[in-house]
Amino acid sequence: MNIIWLCLPAALLITSALSVQMTDIRNLRVFPGFNQSIAGVMLVTSLNELNQPKYAFNASEARRLCWSLGLNIASKAQVQKALSRGLETCRFGWIDEHFAVIPRINPIPSCGRNKSGLVPWRASVKQKFDVFCFNETGE
Ligand SMILES: *[C@@H]1O[C@H](CO)[C@@H](O)[C@H](O)[C@H]1NC(C)=O
Ligand SMILES: *[C@@H]1O[C@H](CO)[C@@H](O)[C@H](O)[C@H]1NC(C)=O
Ligand SMILES: *[C@@H]1O[C@H](CO)[C@@H](O)[C@H](O)[C@H]1NC(C)=O
Ligand SMILES: *[C@@H]1O[C@H](CO)[C@@H](O)[C@H](O)[C@H]1NC(C)=O
């Protein structure tokens, strides 16, 4: 009896994690690519029905999405290191510290307000962005 009560929640968790991964992966774009990273860091973007990128994750959904891919949400230090190794995006992503960043090497007005470095956006946790995930075995 005890064993059943202990195993059931675990089984449900595993099933739901797998189904999230199965259903969502076709609607996701990963930069620099699926199973790829720069210094372990990748940007995960949701795609709408027309396959166009769409900011879709609030702060807690962002964290959960990385978990569903078997990864963790990246920290500021991890994205900073990836930036120093050449990671540059034109989209904001949530990081572990509950704000969004855009890593910029070249300042251009249409990406990150023409700034370079790790450009922060201290938005409400309800705001939707992409997410930076971290793969520690891919570092
Ligand atoms: C990513 O790696 C996993 C596990 O090795 C594999 O099952 C999956 O097909 C890979 N995905 C892509 C898009 O290459
Ligand atoms: C994590 O990195 C390892 C090693 O590079 C790679 O084999 C694996 O596919 C990566 N996983 C994801 C989900 O990107
Ligand atoms: C963007 O930044 C660059 C370098 O910091 C500067 O030279 C340029 O004038 C800026 N452009 C705009 C449109 O603000
Ligand atoms: C994020 O979205 C989830 C799912 O829609 C929702 O349950 C949660 O309350 C939202 N969190 C915030 C901070 O808006």
Automatic annotation (TrEMBL):
Disulfide bonds: 90-111
SMART domains on file: LINK
GO cellular component: plasma membrane
Domain Link: 44-135
Membrane topology field: Single-pass membrane protein
Classification via Gene3D superfamilies: Mannose-Binding Protein A, subunit A
Molecular functions per Gene Ontology: hyaluronic acid binding; transmembrane signaling receptor activity
SUPFAM superfamilies per UniProt: C-type lectin-like (SSF56436)
UniProtKB keywords: Disulfide bond, Glycoprotein, Membrane, Receptor, Signal, Transmembrane, Transmembrane helix
Main localization, broad class: membrane
Localization of this protein: Membrane
Name recorded for this polypeptide: Lymphatic vessel endothelial hyaluronic acid receptor 1-like
Organism: Neolamprologus brichardi (Fairy cichlid)
Lineage, opening ranks: Eukaryota, Metazoa, Chordata, Craniata, Vertebrata
